[in-house]
Amino acid sequence: MFSFHHVTLSVRDLSVSERFYKGLGFESVYRWQDEAAQLQICHLRLGQALLELYCFRPQDETEELTALPPWASGLRLGLRHFALQVSDLDEALSALHGAGILAEKPSVVSGQTCSRYVFIVDPDGNSVELLEEPLVEIQRPESAG
Question: Do 118 and 102 contact (CB within 8 A), yes or no?
Answer without folding.
Answer: no
